[in-house]
Amino acid sequence: MGEETQIARAARKQAIRRKAQRRHSHFYERFSHWSFCNHADAEPIRWHRERWMLAGTAMLITALSGFIIPAWASAMRPDPAPAAHTMLPLALPKALPTTVHAPTVEDWHIVQVQPGQTLSDIFQSQGLSLTDLQRVMDEARDAKALHNIHPGQEFDFLLGSDGSLRGIRFDKDESNRAIVRFDGDKPTMTAQTREVERREHVVHGSIDSSLFAAGSKAGMSNAMVLKLAELFKYDIDFVQDLREGDSFTVIYDDVYRDGAYLHEGEIVAAEFVNQGDRYTAYRFKKDDGSYGWFSEDGRPIQKSFLRIPVDFTRISSQFSAARMHPILGRMRAHQGVDYAAPTGTPIHAAGDGVVKFKGWMNGYGNFVIIQHNSSISTAYGHMSKFANVKLGQHVSQGSVIGFVGMTGLATGPHLHYEFRVNNVQRDPQKVTLPKPEPLPGVQLAKFKSQVVQPQLARLKALDANVKLARASGRNDD
Ligand SMILES: [Zn+2]
């Protein structure tokens, strides 16, 4: 009992210390984009901010005494001052007195994993032996966190006055902390659940120069903007299709642990209006426990087929009923599209399917056919070589099946791509691609009532606010 409260007290103290540290680092992470949005000399200012943070109390006293400040102020650039002031309230929270009451304080030593370090390096740096490491491993053998350590991860050590290992604690995963103690009758491992919380943000942006600029203006990190672009990449070509006036509304979350920022979360719901067309994506936890993103009608965001299965430089020949064949020198239908690309460029499976043919085919050279369902197949010709796929193998959309070349009848390296419906070639650029199947009945109903309805209301509410703000002439959008 006594030991338990002691552990709890120590843990609380630890949590407070970490909270302060994390808030601190969170600040820089969140606002790091300022440094490249603004001027290049932001770096030294940030250093000053950091010192303000670390020396919070000392600076406060200094500020109160009031006579050193003018000297400092002249040494610093004046413009960042407002930002620095907003930092002060972030210094240690009200909970501080609880640590003062703690009668005994265990001196846990926090060690942060450096790049290239192994767990045994860390143990040795604490004057511990491989036997100690083995004891920990024996006690916490199911903890994956010990088998795959990464830089930045923390291990806290409790050492006896003789330098012997009395305890170690570490994060097993995002929300679970393991505490292994060796100072009792026998080794013990206890788990401590940490409060993990997702905080949501609702933002709206309007494109005037670039997606990144708009995202940044709306308060999104570049990583979150990339996630947004990734969600809509099947519908919108962000390089060619984006127009001034396009807009987006996004609900996304950030992950906090014990009240401190831990890492970026995911997009919960998003709406993108591109050239007047509206696209939506909602996160939904499927019956199998995995998450997926679905449009408002419950169809997966990811389409069944990639329109173009290769990163091409130009279209060297379109689909046509009849054209002059460049090698044969006579009129012949061209039943696919030729995408010119350098030899060796990877070719991707346009959709999920099974490899129905892999080998040499007259004219086509090295050739692959993928059967996607009972009626649709796609074909890929002139490959320089095949990827490591076997006949009959299942391939998923986007997986590499071969590489661009000019085997067979070809005048230069390109992919000859065919889209066949019931073995008849259709124009891959124009054929209506089948829509992916929506969620099955029960899940669809759940998706609509539990996800779309509430999230759509939030998206609409923000849209309405933005419009209202525009109408009333506020220019803070
Ligand atoms: Zn061709």
Task: Explain the overall architecture.
By secondary structure, this protein is an alpha+beta fold. Among the domains are: 109-193, Nuclear Transport Factor 2, Chain: A (Roll), CATH 3.10.450; 196-294, Nuclear Transport Factor 2, Chain: A (Roll); 314-426, Distorted Sandwich (Glucose Permease (Domain IIA)). It has 13 helices and 23 strands. The protein has helices at 2-31, 33-37, 42-54, 56-65, 69-75, 81-87, 97-101, 119-125, 130-139, 144-147, 211-217, 222-232, 441-471; strands at residues 109-112, 154-159, 165-173, 176-181, 188-193, 196-206, 247-257, 260-274, 277-285, 291-294, 314-317, 320-324, 331-334, 337-340, 346-348, 353-361, 365-371, 376-383, 385-386, 394-395, 400-403, 414-421, 424-426. The strands form five sheets. Strands 11, 14, 16, 17, 18, 20, 22 and 23 form an eight-stranded antiparallel beta sheet that branches. Bound molecules: zinc ion.
In terms of DSSP E residues, the strand content is 25-35%
Q: How large is the radius of gyration? A: 30 Å
- CATH architecture name of one domain: Distorted Sandwich
The geometry reads as globular
CATH 4th-level superfamily of one domain: Glucose Permease (Domain IIA)
- Estimated helix fraction: 25-40%
